[in-house]
User: What shape does this take?
Amino acid sequence: MVEAFAVASGKGGTGKTTSTLALGMALAEEYDVTVIDADTGMANLLFHAGLSSVDTTLHDVLVEGGAPVEDAVYDRFGMSVVPCGTSLAGFEAAEPERLRDVVATLAVDTDVILLDSPATLGSKSAVLPIVLADRVVVVLQPTIPALSDGLKVQEYAHSYGTETAGTIFNKVTDPDDVQSVAEKSRRYFDGPTLATVPDSDAAREARRAGKPLLAYAPAAEAAEAYRGAARDLDVRSGAADDVADRFRSAVIPEPR
Amino acid sequence: MKLPSGRLVHSRVVDDPGSALAAALDRELTGYAVLEPQETLLLAADARGVLTFSEGVPVLAYHTETDRGGPPALADLAVPGPYRLELVALSDAVLTDLHDTPALRVPPGMPAERLAGDHDLAARTRASAPDDRVRESPGGDADSDEPAQESAVEAFLEDEGKIEAIREQAREEARERASEWGLDDVCE
Assistant: This one.
């Protein structure tokens, strides 16, 4: 079974990468999980996962005659992690539409794929993860700009046939306040509120230590919130071949 | 509120009001900021938010369309971006007269909290504020027609018309871009 989720927010600074890895580690207790840094222009998952010095990244795979995807897969923290490089040259050379084949290849051998998605909707490569995913997990903060951008992400996703799996309120400083914001936002966002994650020094320290939050501070309140999100996420089964075929046949934008 | 003319020091499009507050703080602006939402779909064409600053720290808030000041003006101002932001520098003397309007005053950290939900920026702003302003109470309008603690975020979520306009605009944008990007076939 395979289901691909895009973890997206449309706005930077909401903690998408922290959320992707935390959700991935929590889901890995039950499923075989593959996490892909699909933010090919502003990659940062490698820093969160202690992979900043690896030789082969997604950038090397997304070029004509590039490395096989297997070379960019690293077993870390109980997951398969596909980091992306950070060089501008790497981004410019990469052909984002090749992401479809990467996902299709990895889909054969995993249960859950999480695509850490770009914090923008402004280009073909930026919307691609949302187009390719089955469902989107929208990462929000209880602020007007973040909610507004989250709504845009959801509308884009729905326009491209991708459903909403649920929302995560991240970096929450006032738990009482967020309950009422989450309650009111439920009218507009499909799927459950998977978690309200407290703003946490542990998350910042984990990033500095190059470890996912659940590895660095498994007992932190924020880590528990992500485990709760993983429990509430109803992963749907789909045959791996079907998913691979679907990705291969997905209509993909022309190269930039 | 009649705005005195001054020296335009910064003019650009910003994504959210937090950028305006950070820009004013970083420049230690003494003057005012005008925020004009670009989304005419959502608001009357002449809707503008005005914040005044003393050495980068917000002092007054006013909204031209609703004619409200103080914390209620912050709620009116809290709409999705982008905005056109203009920062205008004024002399201390001109600003001192303007600031003698207690009803429009906002505590230093409140704009960052209410408009951007940015606690770090609010803390930074409070740290830059003179001691006598750190515990300032909100302006006189605060209790007249809205509780001072009303969350701008909740008010935003209760405005179904505004939310629907954002969604409709995003759907249109997604459709237009799908055709631009050769994604027509995946569009539902």
Notes: The first strand of chain B starts at residue 7 and ends at 14.
